[in-house]
Amino acid sequence: MTGQAAEQGIKRFFRPDHPVQFVLGLAIWSLWFVVMYAALSVGCGFFPPVTETVFNLITPTLLLFTLLIMLLFTVLALRSWRYSRHAQNLSHMQRFTVRVGLALHLLAALATLAGALPVLVLSPCV
Amino acid sequence: MTEHHNSAPAHQQHLTQIWANLPGWRSLAAVNHGTIGLRFIVTGMLFFLIGGVLAMLIRTQLALAEQTIVSAEVYAQLFSMHGSVMMFLFAIPVLEGIAIYLIPKMIGSRDLLFPRLSAFGYFCYLFGGLIILFSLVLGIAPASGWFMYTPLSSSEFSPGPGSDFWLLGITFVEISALAAGVELTVSILSSRARGMTLSRMPLFCWYILVMAMMIVFGFPPLILASILLELERAAGMPFFAVAGGGDPLLWQHLFWLFGHPEVYIIFLPAAGIVSTLIPVFSGRPIVGYRWIVIGVILTGFISFGLWVHHMFTVGIPQLAQAFFSVASMLVAVPTAIQVFAWLATLWRGNVVFRLPMLWLCGFLVVFVCGGLTGVMLALVPFNWQVHDTHFVVAHMHYVLVGGMFFPLMAGLYYWLPLVSGRMPSDSIGRWGFWLTFIGFNLTFLLMHLTGLLGMPRRIYTYEAGLGWDWLNFISSIGGFIMATGVAITLLDLLLHFRFGKHSAANPWQADTLEWAMPLPPPQYNFASLPTVNSRQPLWQQADVAEAAAAAAEFSHSYSGLRENWGTTPLNARLAKILCLPGNSWWPLRCALVLAVVCISLLCRQYGLAALAAVIAVGLLLCWSWQNGARLLSDKPVITQNTELRFDYQTTDGPGRIGMIVSLLANAVLYMSLLFGWFYLWTAAPLWSSVQQGPVPVSALVAGGVILTVTAWQFNRVCRQLANGDDTALLRRLCYCAATGITHIALLGGVFVVTPLQYTGSAHDAVITVVLLYLLGHACLAVLLTLLQAIRVRLGYVGRSAPYEPQVIKPLWLYYLAVYWLSTALFFLLPLGWSAT
After folding, report:
1. Is the pLDDT higher at A101 or at B633?
2. Mean pLDDT across the stretch B236-259?
3. To 5 degrees, how large is the angle CA B25–CA B26–CA B31?
4. Which DSSP string corresponds to B450-476?
5. At CB < 8 A and 24+ separation, what contacts does B818-826 make?
6. From CA B245, how far away is CA B474, in angstroms rounded?
7. What are phi and psi of B566, to 5 degrees?
8. Which residues 64-93 of chain A have a CB within 8 Å of chain B?
9. What is the bridge-based pairing of β-strands B574-580 and B642-646?
């Protein structure tokens, strides 16, 4: 495979009608979940906050990370949405993939948002 | 070769001959999915009966206060075995059996793509199950509960062999589950009927695809945990002992990393049955096909983020608990999507209340109740109150019996005519259902109250006057009513083989492809390649049954062997011809020798175990050698204007996908080990890492460089073959093997010279396991490369048959990745951390 062909090969994975969309959003959610839990555990183990309030280093770090992930979901969902509206002559399978992918990106975003809400109200290491 | 058009009986006779099992006792060598699937189901139901008898003994003991029918020790064995048998020997294997039996028929295929692996999985399951049950006969069964918490299950508090029976037997059974997970995934992706795109695939197949992937990702953590605990018990490696730097909570994490997804591994196939049956008995397509697919995928992922809700009382920070609490509530969303889709389908359809539909109604009522108590348990404060009480027992039974047993019965009744060609008795079946339904609710609805009144689970008796007496008494009566209902149902299923009325074709007016076959179906399922252009082929395509039985494409064997069509994963376009292996004794032989390994370990005969393990590896390699392709032809086949190649003539195929899926499971096992390492490092109270690592890192890096060269060379060989060039192939493979052996020598040297105190420190114990893991992979990769070199010399691999090295390539790449990852995270990172 030439360099250009390889690049094309990799790029096609990110097309909104590629079946990787079935798992991409939720794989990102899984990564977010693991990082949140691991960061909290390691943060509390090695850098415990001095006070038991939400004003500490761990909470903003977790929130910032969540914000980045939400941004990523927004981009992915927007891409799928635009593709489903503008792409011509999509096959049954492609339409199915784009729509399922779009819904899964949005639901993954929702799951991320719901999971991050407790960070706003709970002290991290108590 | 060109297409021949034979007369219908002749081509079917030809296929029957090729696909037949051996007669009499030699049918033990059968590998056909129909035979193996039915064996799984029947064996699972027998284990279910044993688990049921244990449940009745438990209910008899608890019926009245202060009873001493059985002792505390025997009671502990009863509930541990009841849970283990029902979860590991009944629920998962029976559903796997149904999937193994149905999936090829539903996707329009002739068999699963690794039929000998199916047979091997069955024998592993059978022998593993018998080994566990044998402990019960000897009165030394595991007694630490079905989730075997440490330190209760450790040698200090469970010195007998009970825990060993569980750990070794369950691991043996899990080989079977993983085998099923791999082959179901590959078969669904690679051998669907032409035109059956993923968007037209029956919903049951979506459920099984997600379940199979969940098995691949969910089972390895428990396999690792079982290996570590057995190593602790047998060799004194302190992974879970605080004094040695371990932590008993690591077991809980690893167990529930498997344990909670397992609930969904059990639920999803059952929900797949529901999604298949409801449209049939409503007489209309399912409402929200796409939403159900979304719900199933969502369930598959989110169910891996719930495991800590089993551990809310162990002292985890409240924010971490909140993450898992929210995820536990979120998982109700995809389940609710499915429930509403089912209700909408019933609402919009004309429901016919045949026997399977009755069980589905029971499912909807019981499972929704179980789901609601599940959301209650996801709330941390409520969870604390009812933790380890009978409330949890009641919830679990509502979810598992409601979510698995009721749909299972519906499915068995529904697909019974497909197996036997006969119909069950409607009146006996209704008696069975109502007694089961009433008995179940009498037992477990009241058990919620027993739990709320404070009765702990797993106590063998209780004092009178605590308010639990009448509740337990009624629960026990309910238990016996339920047992009567189950007995009547099973009797009905059994008797119908003799007395049931002969079934007409497609007796339920179903829409899926399995009903396009004659009843009972032939071993090869479809005489010719079916074409599907709708989600409901039997409702939309009038001639599909006739076309599938006619003498057309694939209606004779091009190679004289068992053949199946290989289609592309997404769009199901015809891509190649797959040669499938036939009847074989290899699966039985290998499983028998592995059983010897298991029993030798139980008896602490480590020499014999090592010898048997070596023989097992040898047999498995012989099996792989015999399964490998023999060059039948180097020319493509022309079928109806399409040029097709055999899989061994190409560079991609089911074997390669199977290897990748297996490596995914392997990667999860490795990641679980990595998790354990970091967990002990950050959480174990007495963890001690060393300032100067005991392992010579420079030697590891040198080994890594040699490995990189080897993997790069192997990769080059594969690319060269893919480009149709086999110049100096043998020499290059030998060169790979030689550098691989140098790498093994270096790594082995590191292992031998490093003074690891694996019985004194959890740190060194983990390092020992990591080094052994790496060495095992290195040996396997080199052995397989050597075998390839021999096959090149014999002419089985070359320009005309470039496939096999492509199957091994992912193993080399995987090993290269984990080697460098291990060097970085297990050896370099701790040194850097200590330095700072």
Report:
1. A101
2. 95
3. 120
4. HHHTTPBTT-S---TTSS-HHHHHHHH
5. B818/B667, B818/B670, B818/B773, B818/B774, B818/B777, B819/B703, B819/B704, B819/B707, B819/B774, B820/B704, B821/B674, B822/B770, B822/B773, B822/B774, B823/B697, B823/B700, B823/B701, B823/B704, B825/B674, B825/B677, B826/B677, B826/B766, B826/B767, B826/B770
6. 48
7. -105, 125
8. 91-93
9. parallel
Query: What is the rounded CA–CA span in Å between residue A44 and residue A123?
Result: 11
On the question of pLDDT at B6 being above 50, the answer is no
Q: Which residues of A touch B297 (CB under 8 A)?
A: 22-23, 26, 100, 104
Residue B737: name the closest of B807, B797, B787 by CA: B787
Of B197, B318, B325, which has the smallest distance from its Cβ to A92's Cβ? B197
CA dist B301 and A27 (Å) reads 8
Task: Please tell me if residue A26 touches chain B, with a CB cutoff of 8 Å.
Answer: yes
Q: Which residue has the tokens 């989110």?
A: B302
Joined together, the tokens standing for residue A64 give 């910032």
**pLDDT tens digits along B770-829:** 999 999 999 999 999 999 999 999 989 999 899 999 999 999 999 999 999 999 998 888
* CA–CA separation, B397 and B375 (whole Å): 15
Determine which of B2-11, B240-249, B520-529, B791-800 has the lowest per-residue pLDDT on average.
B2-11
Domain spans in chain A, listed from the N-terminal domain onward:
18-120
Separation between Cα atoms, residue B572 and residue B341, nearest integer Å? 27
> Closest Cα partner for B408 from B730, B694, B99?
B99
Cβ B469 vs Cβ B63: under 8 Å: no
More confident residue, A1 or B651: B651
Distance (Å, whole) CA B171 – CA B260: 17
Per-residue tokens: B571? 């769009």
Is A1's pLDDT higher than 60?
Answer: no
Instruction: Find out whether the peptide bond into B269 is cis, omega within 30 degrees of 0.
Output: no
Which of A22, A100, A122 is the closest to B322 by Cβ?
Answer: A122
Q: State pLDDT tens for residues B154-212.
A: 999 999 999 999 999 999 999 999 999 999 999 999 999 999 999 999 999 999 999 99
Tell me how close the Cα of A63 comes to any Cα of chain B, in angstroms. Answer: 13
State which residue of chain A sits closest to B292, comparing Cα positions. Answer: A100
Say what the pLDDT of residue B7 is. 47
pLDDT band at B456 (very low <50, low <70, confident <90, very high): very high
B333 with A107: Cβ contact below 8 A: yes
Residues in chain B: 836
Measured between CA atoms, the residue of chain A closest to residue B195 is: A93
- B453 exposure class (CB count in 10 Å sphere: 0-12, 13-18, 19+): middle
Counting beta carbons within 10 angstroms of the beta carbon of residue B347, is it exposed (0 to 12), middle (13 to 18) or buried (19 or more)?
exposed
Query: In chain B, which residue's Cα lies nearest the Cα of A59?
Result: B319
- Least CB–CB distance from B199: residue in A46, A93, A123: A93
CA–CA separation, B38 and B419 (whole Å): 9
A-to-B residue pairs, Cβ atoms closer than 8 angstroms: 94
Give percent of chain A with pLDDT exceeding 70: 89
Condensed to tens digits (0 to 9), the pLDDT of residues B50-103 reads 999 999 999 999 999 999 999 999 999 999 999 999 999 999 999 999 999 999
Nearest Cα residue in chain B from A44: B317
Chain B segment 322-341 residues within 8 A of A by beta carbon are: 322-323, 325-327, 330, 333
Where are the extended beta strands (E) located within B110-160? none
What is the spatial distance between Cα B328 and Cα B322, in angstroms, rounded to a whole number?
A: 10
Nearest 5°: the CA angle B576, B580, B585 is 165
3-state secondary structure of B194: strand
CA atoms of B257 and B262, how far apart (whole Å): 9
Q: How large is the ipTM?
A: 0.93
Residue B567 DSSP SS3:
strand
Strand ranges of the sheet holding B562-567, from the earlier edge strand across to the other edge: B562-567, B574-580, B642-646, B637-639
